[in-house]
């Protein structure tokens, strides 16, 4: 997630330190988990069911990571488009 965040910053014309990217990635994952409590709960509960849990939990994790990535992209777009507009 940290590498993805740093790469996304570059796509939007900015740059981030590794620590800033890590903080932003952690915040995005936390926010995604809080916004999608049903998916988080389903993921954790599915781990208790043999075989089904091995399929469901990783799928939900992938969806949540993608949602966190889009959240980061939106934040970076706002951050760098605002910076570019004011210069």
Count of DSSP strands:
0
Amino-to-carboxy terminus distance: 29 Å
Overall average pLDDT: 86
Helical segment count: 4
Give Rg in angstroms: 16 Å
Secondary-structure element sequence?
HHHH
Provide the domain count.
Answer: 1
| Biggest pleated-sheet summary | none
Explain what you see:
This protein is mostly helical. It has one domain (about 1-85). It is about 85% helix and about 0% strand. It has 4 helices and no strands. It has helices at about 1-10, 20-35, 35-45, 50-85. Helix 1 (about 1-10) crosses helix 2 (about 20-35), helix 1 runs parallel beside helix 4 and helix 2 (about 20-35) packs across helix 4 (about 50-85). The longest helix has about 35 residues, at about 50-85.
Short structural summary:
With 87 residues, the chain is mainly α.
Give the topology.
Elements: H1 2-11, H2 18-35, H3 37-46, H4 52-86
Helix pairs in contact: 1-2, 1-4, 2-4, 3-4
What brief labels describe this structure?
mainly alpha
């Amino acid at each position: 997630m940290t590498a993805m965040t740093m790469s996304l910053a570059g796509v939007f014309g900015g740059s981030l330190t590794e620590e800033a990217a890590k903080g932003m990635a952690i915040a995005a994952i936390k926010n995604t988990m809080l916004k999608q409590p049903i998916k988080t709960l389903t993921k954790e509960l599915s781990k208790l069911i043999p075989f089904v849990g091995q399929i469901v939990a990783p799928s939900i994790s992938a969806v949540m990571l993608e949602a966190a990535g889009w959240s980061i992209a939106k934040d970076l777009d706002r951050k760098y488009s605002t910076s570019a507009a004011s210069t």
